[in-house]
Amino acid sequence: RSLTHLDVSHNNLRALPSELGLLSGLEVIKCRSCQLTGTLPTEIGACTKLETLAIATNSIGGTIPTEIGQLSTSCRYLDLGVNLITGTIPSEVGTLSRLETLILSWNDLSGWLPSELGQLSSLQGIFLWRGNQQLRDCF
């Protein structure tokens, strides 16, 4: 039997190990309000059954890895809000065909929203408020 849910929220963790990608049966990762720094590991894309990725309220920096697109048939809830994420929203987010909720508020994102987001027929909410002053007007 493999691990399907990992919730380590409200702990004093400092980093997400790249070995998370070895836990291919994970469906839920919650690391809210820890003290995470560094970047989101690209190996997260190997968790192809992941439905929920909630890593809000930390100090994760860098960009959203393009490997997030490898979660295309599983991810329903993606919360990377209240971090230090920079750069643009990768077009690969638009391949998350089951995505219902996308939370990227309180980061430092820039550029345009990728047009691929328009393909997300299951999307019910996208949250980009506060921070993200460099996102271009798109509505």
Automatic annotation (TrEMBL):
Kindly give the Pfam families that the UniProt entry links to this protein. LRR_1
Keyword Transcription: yes or no?
Answer: no
Name the source's superkingdom. Answer: Eukaryota
Q: Does the keyword Repeat apply?
A: yes
Record-annotated membrane-spanning stretches: none
Q: Which InterPro entries match?
A: Leu-rich_rpt, Leu-rich_rpt_typical-subtyp, LRR_dom_sf, LRRC69/RLP
SUPFAM superfamilies in alphabetical order: L domain-like
Q: Which UniProt keywords apply?
A: Leucine-rich repeat, Repeat
* Protein name, as recorded: Uncharacterized protein
Q: To which species is this protein native?
A: Grammatophora oceanica
Q: What is the lineage of its organism?
A: Eukaryota, Sar, Stramenopiles, Ochrophyta, Bacillariophyta
